[in-house]
Structures are given as structure tokens and as C-alpha cells.
């Protein structure tokens, strides 16, 4: 399996993406903002298809669209919290715009499949370099804001009284989520971002680990699911995103069953 260049590139890409999606997803689930990654991926889909029309890299459009949406969501704050109908309408419009852009493209079928469900085996060495750069930036940013972000997540009133800029943290964190979502979409596609962004983090949070151990465990579990999906895809000829989704759901259910058995 590792004799092929495209498989080695795929494993490296999965490593870079999982190391970001695990810790970012841990904070995402802890803050109760899991719907944000799904929303950002849909908005990023319109940006990716627009970039394809202009002859640019889909990753550029996906990251740009998701980043803009993440900043706007952070600035809006509580004004959009709980407004599922409004958010759903925005997502529908974004997907509709993306569908229009794909209709105008001559290679819409292959482009749609790659964007919606991912194409980890088609990642080029040049794309791998961009993923490495984005991953390094995300981890650096998360490391800088991790302590105040955790404080603001667990005790928002006390953090605000201590002078922690809650809205700025929200904007910066959602910007990181947007970049991580754009990276994750290269592996799982925009429709299955939950599989690598949310499933490992939600599984780890059920274990009740300390924050530092939880962040590390979320990254490790995301990596195990991504690499496991690649290996199972190689031997079964089924899509990698299918196996990643299956492993993520199975891990979450298994931890729940073990906890119930112990109780």
C-alpha cells in the first residue's frame, strides 16, 4: 500500500488534518457549537465552486468562504444563537449557489463528488504543502488562545468580569474552525465534516479526561479514524469517507456502551 506515492501523500494529509480537527473539535463540542462546522462547510462549498469557475484551487475558495462566514458568525454572537431556521435558510442558499456554479462548469460531476464527499487520494504534493501551512497556523493560534478560551467556555460570566474579551475570542475561534473545516473537507467532503471534526472530540469528552489529555486524545483518535479509513478503503475498495464516518460513529457508541456497563 505504501509503495504508491498517492497513498503516502494521503496518509500525510490525513495526519496534518487530524492533528488540527481533533483539538479544534474538542473545543467545538465543549462550547456547544458543533453546528458551526456544518454551517461553515456549506458556505465554503459555494466559495469552492466559485473558485473552480475562476480557475483557482477549490481549497482557496473553500477556506476563504468558510473564513468569512466564521468571522461574521463570531461578530453576530448571540444574535444568531438558536435561530435554526435562519441558519438553515442560509445553508440552503449557499448550497444552491454552489450547485449553480457546478452547473456552469464543464466538469461538474467529478468536481461535485470531490467537494461533497472528499478526495483524499487525489491530494497533490502542492496541496499537501498548503495543508501543512494551514495546520501549523491553526495549532499555533489554538495554543495561544487555549487557556482563555477554556476559561471563557466553562465560566463565561467570570471570564467577562476578569476582562477576557469574549467576542474577540469567539471570532478568532470560529476563524480557526473555518480553516480546520476547509482542511477537513479535503478528506471527508463538505457533507461529512462531522465525521472528523465532531465524532472523535465527542467520543473523548465522554471519557471525562483533563483538558490537556482530552486535546491529545481527540487528535490521536481523529488520526486513528483517518488512517483506519484509508487502510480499510484500500482493502475493500469502499470510499475513505464512508469508513471514517463508520469508525467515528462506532467509537462514540462503543464508549457509551462501556460507560453504561461500568455504571
UniProtKB/TrEMBL annotation:
<feature type="transmembrane region" description="Helical">
    <location>
        <begin position="171"/>
        <end position="199"/>
    </location>
</feature>
<feature type="transmembrane region" description="Helical">
    <location>
        <begin position="127"/>
        <end position="151"/>
    </location>
</feature>
<feature type="transmembrane region" description="Helical">
    <location>
        <begin position="6"/>
        <end position="30"/>
    </location>
</feature>
<dbReference type="GO" id="GO:0010043">
    <property type="term" value="P:response to zinc ion"/>
</dbReference>
<dbReference type="GO" id="GO:0055085">
    <property type="term" value="P:transmembrane transport"/>
</dbReference>
<keyword id="KW-1003">Cell membrane</keyword>
<dbReference type="Pfam" id="PF00950">
    <property type="entry name" value="ABC-3"/>
</dbReference>
<keyword id="KW-0813">Transport</keyword>
<dbReference type="GO" id="GO:0006829">
    <property type="term" value="P:zinc ion transport"/>
</dbReference>
<comment type="similarity">
    <text>Belongs to the ABC-3 integral membrane protein family.</text>
</comment>
<comment type="function">
    <text>Involved in the high-affinity zinc uptake transport system.</text>
</comment>
<keyword id="KW-0812">Transmembrane</keyword>
<keyword id="KW-0862">Zinc</keyword>
<feature type="transmembrane region" description="Helical">
    <location>
        <begin position="241"/>
        <end position="258"/>
    </location>
</feature>
<feature type="transmembrane region" description="Helical">
    <location>
        <begin position="85"/>
        <end position="106"/>
    </location>
</feature>
<keyword id="KW-0472">Membrane</keyword>
<keyword id="KW-1133">Transmembrane helix</keyword>
<protein>
    <recommendedName>
        <fullName>High-affinity zinc uptake system membrane protein ZnuB</fullName>
    </recommendedName>
</protein>
<keyword id="KW-0406">Ion transport</keyword>
<keyword id="KW-0864">Zinc transport</keyword>
<dbReference type="InterPro" id="IPR037294">
    <property type="entry name" value="ABC_BtuC-like"/>
</dbReference>
<feature type="transmembrane region" description="Helical">
    <location>
        <begin position="51"/>
        <end position="73"/>
    </location>
</feature>
<dbReference type="InterPro" id="IPR001626">
    <property type="entry name" value="ABC_TroCD"/>
</dbReference>
<dbReference type="GO" id="GO:0043190">
    <property type="term" value="C:ATP-binding cassette (ABC) transporter complex"/>
</dbReference>
<feature type="transmembrane region" description="Helical">
    <location>
        <begin position="211"/>
        <end position="235"/>
    </location>
</feature>
